[in-house]
Amino acid sequence: MDDLALFDTGRWPAREALARIFGCLLVVLLVANRILQLPGWPGYIQEVRWVRPWFETLAFLPKALLPPAFDLELRYTGYGYTRSQIHLLWSLELLLWFIETGLLLGYAIVWLTRPPARASAKGFMQTAFPMLLVILPFGIVTRPYTYNRWMPENAVAHLGGLYAINGALIAAGLLNLAGLVALRRSFSIMAEARVFVRAGPYRWVRHPMYLAHFVIFFCCTLLRLQMLTVGLYLAFFAGQALRARIEERKLSEAFPEYEEYRRSTGMFLPRLF
User: Fold this and answer.
1) What is the C-alpha separation between 118 and 62, in angstroms, rounded?
2) Is residue 273 a part of any domain in this protein?
3) pTM attached to this predicted model
4) Do residues 65 and 52 make contact, with C-beta atoms less than 8 angstroms apart?
5) Contact by Cβ (8 Å): 176, 213
6) Could you report the per-residue pLDDT of 193-248, keeping only the tens digit for each?
7) Does residue 40 lie within any of the structural domains?
């Protein structure tokens, strides 16, 4: 099966041009979707209710694209939280929205500017397997929100838990963004070698973006906690660890100096000694 042209990107016609086109088109669709999701997350507080009539003009769109409006301030005021507590939560969620949207735009930029692969992906594990791992987390983030079931709004730790989860998501998003900026010209979803990168967070860990993804989707699992999402997260974690090993073999073949880097740098966490 690995000999099929389907699993040999070197035999795909105009593959770089197609990756740029489809990658950027996907980013445009995802960014547009994120804008339409704003009324539902982070929702409304008093200072931004003036935009609600504009989103209401789009009410003809299906709920999958334009979710029902959610007034965060009204919801949490009813549980006795102060305005400053509510605004802090809303601000954290809005900051997270900007970081995640910036990441999507960053992916479009690297797709447009990266050089051709020095060693292209070949075989199922280098081509299709990484693509499956990119799709897998959508099974987590599209599940129903369950945080308020196991941590009800009237629980003492409810808002503190959301602060902590959003703080972790923001930190992981910034690490993801820093990794993307450092990687930029070498970025690839499939196992390909383009440019050997040791700058930015890659000075301390070999896979900082995967570390960020572990934190991000762990937090998403907490917000949508159920047996299915836990199972999907464990499968994602194991799959990413295997994917990292596959990529490292590819990089070692293309860059002899990678072996020294691998021995001296931690995989997902910095080496202290």
Assistant:
1) 44
2) no
3) 0.94
4) no
5) yes
6) 999 999 999 999 999 999 999 999 999 999 999 999 999 999 999 999 999 999 99
7) yes
